[in-house]
Amino acid sequence: MYQAISKLYPICRSITGNGFRETLKIIQELIPLEIHEVPTGTEVFDWTVPKEWNIKDAYIKNSQGERVVDFQKSNLHVVNYSVPVRKKMPFQELKEHLFTLPDTPEWIPYRTSYYKETWGFCLSHKQFLELKDEEYEVCIDSSLEPGSLTYGEYYIKGESPDEVLISCHACHPSLCDDNLSGIALSAYLAKHLSSISLRYSYRFLFIPGTIGSITWLCLNEAQAQKIKHGLVLTCVGDPGKVTYKRSRQGDAQIDRASLHVLKHSGQEHEIIDFFPYGYDERQYCSPGFNLAVGCFMRSQHGEFPEYHTSADNLDFVQPQYLADSFSKCLSIFHVLEGNGTYLNQNPKCEPRLGKRGLYKGIGGQKEGALNEMAILWVLNLADGNHTLLDIADRSGLAFDEIKRAADALLEHDLLKECLKSAAVS
Amino acid sequence: MYQAISKLYPICRSITGNGFRETLKIIQELIPLEIHEVPTGTEVFDWTVPKEWNIKDAYIKNSQGERVVDFQKSNLHVVNYSVPVRKKMPFQELKEHLFTLPDTPEWIPYRTSYYKETWGFCLSHKQFLELKDEEYEVCIDSSLEPGSLTYGEYYIKGESPDEVLISCHACHPSLCDDNLSGIALSAYLAKHLSSISLRYSYRFLFIPGTIGSITWLCLNEAQAQKIKHGLVLTCVGDPGKVTYKRSRQGDAQIDRASLHVLKHSGQEHEIIDFFPYGYDERQYCSPGFNLAVGCFMRSQHGEFPEYHTSADNLDFVQPQYLADSFSKCLSIFHVLEGNGTYLNQNPKCEPRLGKRGLYKGIGGQKEGALNEMAILWVLNLADGNHTLLDIADRSGLAFDEIKRAADALLEHDLLKECLKSAAVS
Amino acid sequence: MYQAISKLYPICRSITGNGFRETLKIIQELIPLEIHEVPTGTEVFDWTVPKEWNIKDAYIKNSQGERVVDFQKSNLHVVNYSVPVRKKMPFQELKEHLFTLPDTPEWIPYRTSYYKETWGFCLSHKQFLELKDEEYEVCIDSSLEPGSLTYGEYYIKGESPDEVLISCHACHPSLCDDNLSGIALSAYLAKHLSSISLRYSYRFLFIPGTIGSITWLCLNEAQAQKIKHGLVLTCVGDPGKVTYKRSRQGDAQIDRASLHVLKHSGQEHEIIDFFPYGYDERQYCSPGFNLAVGCFMRSQHGEFPEYHTSADNLDFVQPQYLADSFSKCLSIFHVLEGNGTYLNQNPKCEPRLGKRGLYKGIGGQKEGALNEMAILWVLNLADGNHTLLDIADRSGLAFDEIKRAADALLEHDLLKECLKSAAVS
After folding, report:
1. CA quadruple A280, A285, A288, A290: dihedral positive or negative?
2. Taking Cα atoms as reference points, which of A233, A137, A147 lies closest to residue A187?
3. How does DSSP assign B149-197, residue by residue?
4. Which of A114, A118, B69, B363 has the fewest C-beta atoms lying within 10 Å of its C-beta?
5. Between these two residues, C358 and C309, which has the higher pLDDT value?
6. What is the C-alpha to C-alpha distance for residues A247 and C287, in angstroms, rounded to an integer?
7. What is the pLDDT of residue A419?
8. Which of A116, A217, A248 sits opposite B349 (nearest CB)?
9. Does B58 share its domain with B170?
């Protein structure tokens, strides 16, 4: 995943344009992504697909003709979606178009202006302070013209048409945690899931933030109803503790599965309630859809100093954190996959476990028998009203122990699975 | 309000009689109160309107003919509703009719005997210790005769016949916090509300405690069903923190509005559960009515030392506390008035706020946009199942911010109000 | 109760056999217990009634012919349900059949092997260390043959056919807290309840653990539906604080009554959630029955060092703890018995309590009137939707105070009891 991030890092992405296309092509080396193009001007709910933005070069030259701000050194230097400009102007006029971060004077901020046609440059505050009050030549060699919005989609067919959605925004330029980490994690999760047999179908979306999810939801309104669980992945490669933001529903199965996995990880983590800000969960959880989509992240976007600055770079993201995020997401999917509802076939009193080899022979010993407790919990609560996750949560045992117990009991015909449709609580 | 209290302070009130009438006349200088007289002997549910009590003078004279206890100095000296008496008796006999507070020897207690025909005097324990063992002349020049029970009522017609009830007891003699403060606050709230346009109708009752609310409820049983929210006001002028006692329903809209206002006041306050003791909420919340009536107070009656003593005087109540109670009650009514339920007219994904001037143009800035969050919360939860108060509570934002956001969205046709009837959750 | 325990202590009990029969005969001296015999081989749900086990003698003799381990000294020395054995063997072979507790070297462990035909001896670790590496003569003079499973049952007919179940296991040999204490407490509760008039019927079971409750439930499946409340009694004579384990239902009336009694005892106690391990509540709370049966104990089985060792002896159990358990169980039954649902006959406003002598005459006094509060709470919540226990819990008052208030109101025709059937919430 870290290599993929390194490869994607230099590309200047935006919500439309060739940077986005180039990014999807690199992901196609990992998974057979389907690429969609939606023409500029397409009406998507209350929005319109914007003009396509592309950029070749940009700089500010001082009176000596030296590039004092240079797009070739960092694509963050240009306010994303800046209209083309080429003119000379005094420093006082130029200043209105410059953005810096005085508190972290070494860092370049990341700024966008998608829906208002303007232009600007971002630079470190240190660079800014070195600028003299002289005339500058400003050039942004960009184009903002009719074209299309591009997004990538990958569908893995499972046993059921019910879907798990994994969505990440792929519209940020040279920013690693937000959201090259989410892109890489999605791609590797997709690669892994495509190699195993699955109960649910999985849909992966690599989209520009906001306008991408609005476009997809508008063009796939019926399909969206099949999404039973989902995660937005963002900021998943930094050293912060894992943070899970609940879906608008608040206690959906994806919320409970995520909480369970984080609780049993034994690691520090944070659970936050849904709020209508953030990334594409805003759209998936709008009241007209209200999908069970949460957001999985490490440091919460907007809450760490490196967020949306040049410091969100290849040092900030590390392989071990990506690996940890990968493993936790897989555990969450594992819970969703295995979370059946069962009926105890011998509901009156306990069945005799000893004769089936499910119980040790000598009674009266003090040491707790952990797996036996899982077996007893499953038998006790397998009344058709409790999923395995319900049983795990009530017993305090890990889902895996409960699942293994259920599998053993199923093998001995002591359990029967309820209809799959009923299993989705 | 403090001036009104000062004017009302000297009057000797009781649950019936001229003191009560005089009190209502003074309130009529502020609001056009309607005055009702209910004849002695009227059956009201399990009770009977009592005889009317009036008093001209009362004293205890010592053997030198000096008034050692004198009604003219404080009307608390006479046990309220004492039958007339005029005789000489030795100290040993008189003692049986004297009440003092040994723990606060400077204070005169307040005692009543409404439903048992007897007589008595209250005096400071210091006065009591100075009494010699000699013969005393006792005089209570009172009358207890058929007459009527008097109460005041003021109705402000709003857009809807649904009512908000504000009730205060006006039967206590020279006691300021309990309940001249409640009388003055009610009158000034009424005066203010009568000058603005209102969604709800408001009914103000100035009644004798217990028998007054029982009488009103009995004579207005059908009308009582229109009361959707209500507050009993008592002890609202002392320096204590604001205390709200929930209605019997416990989580009615008046309870939630009061909690919201107190929580967002940033000031210390206390919320207590309903219990079937206290003032007229006991009757409004009896199981046969079960009205959504809470009790708004500062120090809780019975819980502060000055309660029902001569120390509940013009020093104990202060204008700034009255003003604070006034402002908090208005805020509560403001929540009730504005607490509509709305439907997002663009429920699928977020509407484009930028083009409507509801969103700033440059994305990617770190500083939280507070009013925008209110807008996003309203859009997200305006699904017909959440009132604005629900949205305020879930978002953690103040009701006013949410209300302003809703008004702005309404103006842009992004919201539509649900039928008013549905708005009362 | 302590005397009964002393008398029962020496007997070698097991899940079947003469020790169990002898135990029931001693209990018959207290209550007219009905004794049932269920033949070996009877199919009971997934189980089969086992062969009957009896034992006359057992020992290990060293090469000098001395009994180094002797059943006559403690019946714990033999693994319960050991098959007969009589042979000589070297120490190395014998060792495989010896059980000790190295951490508490003076204590003999208690071991069983009900469902696997084997044999063994238990001894203190100190004894074990003294054994030399020589040849030993091993003798277990037991029999394991077709016979029957014995249990005792005592039914007290109350006003209603609805039952309260009290169940204790009586299969442990010389162990006092687990469960001679439970046996003695059950017997004395039965003796007491049989002497008073009761709303519910009470069924007492003295059964072997696990197989006993399975057998009873299988042979009395229809009758089991009449059990509305129940307690398993175990470990009720030790100095530990009282522990109540909730039924599987979790908030059944027996759970709420037990919590109420423990909370108002003013003593330290512990409430634990149901888990599918422990004693016969496992069977009563299996999903096919799901009876409202909790478990009342002091120290929790398995959680104290003396559990299932020779240290659970006549010193560990003390009369004052038995008496305290007795009194708390009676209080719980008292709540169940008295927990009616009532209708206030004067639901609109408060009735006039003073004229009925239920209220003191002089108002305005500060001191809280505790019984009056109980009266007011009952009147306020007697709307047919609250049991007296609901009212006690909501008011924070003790059930007895609420019950006394309800009785007084009933006497004055201010309350009417709802149909008994509705009273069981």
Report:
1. positive
2. A233
3. EEEEEEEE--SSS-EEEEEEE---SS-IIIIIIHHHHHHHHHHHHTTS-
4. A118
5. C309
6. 33
7. 73
8. A217
9. no
Two tokens, residue C411:
């006497």
- Last residue within a domain, chosen from C145, C170, C205: C145
Confidence band, pLDDT 50/70/90 cuts, at residue C424: very low
Q: Is B70 helix (H, G, I), strand (E, B) or coil?
A: strand
Q: A363 and A264, same structural domain? A: no
B394 and B358 within one domain: yes
- Structure token digits, residue B121: 């005097």
Token digits of residue C299: 């120290």
Residue ranges, chain A, pLDDT below 70: 360-370, 420-425
Which among C292, C315, C337 is the end of a domain?
C337
The answer to whether the CB of A313 falls within 8 A of the CB of B372 is no
C360 lies in the same domain as C230: no
CATH number of the CATH domain containing B413: 1.10.10.10
Of A350, A365, A395, the CB nearest to C283: A350
Q: Which of B334, B290, B76 is nearest to B200 (CA)?
A: B334
B51–chain C nearest CA distance, Å? 16
Q: What's the mean per-residue pLDDT of chain B? A: 94
In which domain, by residue range, is C16 found?
2-50+148-337
**A23 and A166 belong to one structural domain:** yes
Greatest C-alpha distance within chain B: 92
Alpha carbon distance B80, B120 (integer Å): 8
Residues of A in Cβ contact (< 8 Å) with B348: 45, 217-218, 221, 286, 288-289
> For C176, which DSSP code?
I
> Which pLDDT belongs to residue B237?
97
Check CB contact of B330 with chain A, cutoff 8 Å. Answer: no
The Cα–Cα gap between A38 and B386 comes to: 36
Domain count within chain C: 3
Q: Is residue B121 less than 8 Å (CB to CB) from chain C?
A: no
Rounded average pLDDT over B247-254: 98
Task: Give the CATH number of the domain where residue B125 resides.
Answer: 3.50.30.90
| Tens of pLDDT, residues B203-214 | 999 999 999 999
> B59 and B42 in one domain?
no
Helix residue ranges, H only, C88-210: 91-95, 125-130, 182-193
Q: Is the pLDDT of residue B116 over 90?
A: no
Asked if B376 and A282 come within 8 Å (Cβ–Cβ), the reply is yes
Q: pLDDT (tens digit, 9 = 90+) per residue, B87-100?
A: 999 999 999 999 99
pLDDT of residue B360: 63
- C318 and C182 within one domain: yes
Interface test with C, best of A343, A345, A346, A349 (most C CBs within 10 A): A349
**C-alpha dihedral, A257 to A259 to A262 to A267, nearest 10°:** -170
Cα C156 from Cα C195, distance rounded (Å): 10
Q: Which residues of A291-323 are buried (b: 16+ CB within 10 A; e: fewer)?
A: bbbbbbbbbbbeebebbbbbbbbeebbbeebbe
**What local confidence, expressed as pLDDT, does residue A136 receive?**
97
